[in-house]
C-alpha cells in the first residue's frame, strides 16, 4: 500500500512537471521504478501504459486552455508513434544486465540536458508565429519516440526543446502540442511492449498508481503552464534525475564504484545542483524585473506619444475657423 501511495504521489508530481515543462513525466517515473529495482523494459512498459491515460487527460486539458496546435500534433505524433513502437521492441530484446545501465545513461543524459538548458538558457521567446516545417517535425518525432521507449522517457526532453529552439511557436503551445501528441507515442510504445513482453511484462498495480496521480495533476498542470517559472522547475527536476541515475550507474556491474567514490560523486552533484538552482532563481527574478521594466517603458512611450499627438492636434474651434476661412476664400492652417 505504501508503494502504491508513493507511486501515486510520484505520478502527480511527474505530471505537474510534465504539464508545466512539456517534459519529464516518463523520465521521472521511470527513474523511480528503476530505483525500486524494476526490470528496465517492464519499467518503461508500466510507465507508458500509465501515460496513455495521463497524456489523454493532459491533451484534453491543454486543448480546453487553447494550448494545442493540432497540425503540429499530427505531424510530430505519427512519426513519434512509429519510433516508439520500434524502440519498445529494441529495449525488450536486451538483457536486464545490459538494459539497466543503458537506460540509466539515457536518463542521465536527459537529466543533464534539462539541468543545463533551464539553468543557463530558460525559454527563448523570439521568432514566434512562423510555421514549423513538416520535414523538421517528422524526423524529430521519429527520434524522440524511439528515445522515449528505449529510455523510459524522452518524448518531452527531446521534442519540447527542439520546438522551443525553432522559435516558431509560443511556449505554451509547444508544451500543449507535445503533451497531446504523447498520447499517440504512449499508445504505440505500449502496443510494442505488449507484443514483445506480453501482459506479464507490466505491473498493472504500479501503472494504476502512476495513472491516478497523473490524472489529478493533468488539468492543474495545463493551467499552471502560464504561471509556473519553467527555469526553476527545470533545474530542480534535472538535478533529481541526474542524482538518481548516477546512483544506479555507480552501483551497476559496469562501474561498481566503492563507497568513498560514490559519496564524492554525490557531493559534487549536490554542489552543482544547488548552484544551478540558485542561479536559476536569480535569473528568474532578473528576467521578471526586466520584463516589468520593459512593460513600464512601453507604457511610458505610449503615453508620451498620445501626449505629443494631443499637443499637435487642432482643437474644434480652430477647425471651425478653418472651415469658415475656406468658405470665405481665405484658407488658413488650423494649427496656426
UniProtKB/TrEMBL annotation:
InterPro entries linked: TM_pro_TauE-like (IPR002781), TSUP/Inactive_protease-like (IPR051598)
Annotated Basic and acidic residues bias: 306-315
Regions that span the bilayer: 98-116, 204-225, 232-250, 262-281
Region (Disordered): 306-336
Keywords: Cell membrane, Membrane, Transmembrane, Transmembrane helix
Family: Belongs to the 4-toluene sulfonate uptake permease (TSUP) (TC 2.A.102) family.
Stated name of the protein: Probable membrane transporter protein
Annotated source species: Geodermatophilus dictyosporus
Amino acid at each position: 500500500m505504501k508503494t502504491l501511495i508513493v507511486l501515486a504521489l510520484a505520478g502527480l508530481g511527474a505530471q505537474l512537471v510534465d504539464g508545466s515543462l512539456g517534459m519529464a513525466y516518463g523520465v521521472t517515473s521511470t527513474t523511480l521504478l528503476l530505483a525500486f529495482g524494476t526490470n528496465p523494459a517492464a519499467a518503461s512498459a508500466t510507465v507508458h501504459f500509465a501515460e496513455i491515460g495521463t497524456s489523454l487527460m493532459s491533451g484534453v486539458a491543454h486543448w480546453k486552455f487553447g494550448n494545442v496546435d493540432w497540425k503540429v500534433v499530427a505531424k510530430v505524433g505519427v512519426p513519434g508513434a512509429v519510433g516508439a513502437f520500434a524502440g519498445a521492441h529494441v529495449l525488450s530484446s536486451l538483457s536486464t544486465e545490459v538494459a539497466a545501465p543503458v537506460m540509466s545513461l539515457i536518463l542521465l543524459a536527459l537529466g543533464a540536458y534539462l539541468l543545463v538548458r533551464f539553468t543557463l538558457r530558460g525559454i527563448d521567446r523570439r521568432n514566434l508565429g512562423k510555421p514549423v516545417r513538416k520535414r523538421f517535425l517528422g524526423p524529430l518525432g521519429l527520434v524522440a519516440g524511439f528515445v522515449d521507449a528505449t529510455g523510459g522517457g524522452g518524448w518531452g526532453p527531446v521534442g519540447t526543446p527542439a520546438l522551443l529552439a525553432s522559435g516558431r511557436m509560443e511556449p505554451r503551445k509547444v508544451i500543449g502540442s507535445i503533451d497531446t501528441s504523447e498520447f499517440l507515442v504512449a499508445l504505440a510504445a505500449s502496443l510494442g511492449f505488449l507484443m514483445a513482453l506480453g501482459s506479464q511484462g507490466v505491473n498493472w498495480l504500479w501503472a494504476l498508481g502512476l495513472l491516478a496521480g497523473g490524472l489529478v495533476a493533468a488539468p492543474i498542470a495545463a493551467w499552471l503552464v502560464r504561471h509556473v517559472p519553467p527555469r526553476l522547475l527545470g533545474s530542480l527536476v534535472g538535478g533529481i534525475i541526474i542524482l538518481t541515475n548516477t546512483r544506479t550507474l555507480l552501483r551497476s556491474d559496469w562501474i561498481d564504484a566503492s563507497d568513498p567514490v560514490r559519496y564524492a560523486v554525490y557531493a559534487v552533484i549536490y554542489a552543482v545542483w544547488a548552484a544551478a538552482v540558485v542561479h536559476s532563481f536569480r535569473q528568474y527574478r532578473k528576467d521578471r524585473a526586466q520584463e516589468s521594466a520593459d512593460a513600464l517603458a512601453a507604457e511610458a512611450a505610449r503615453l508620451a506619444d498620445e501626449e505629443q499627438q494631443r499637443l499637435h492636434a487642432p482643437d474644434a474651434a480652430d477647425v471651425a475657423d478653418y472651415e469658415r476661412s475656406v468658405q470665405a476664400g481665405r484658407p488658413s492652417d488650423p494649427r496656426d
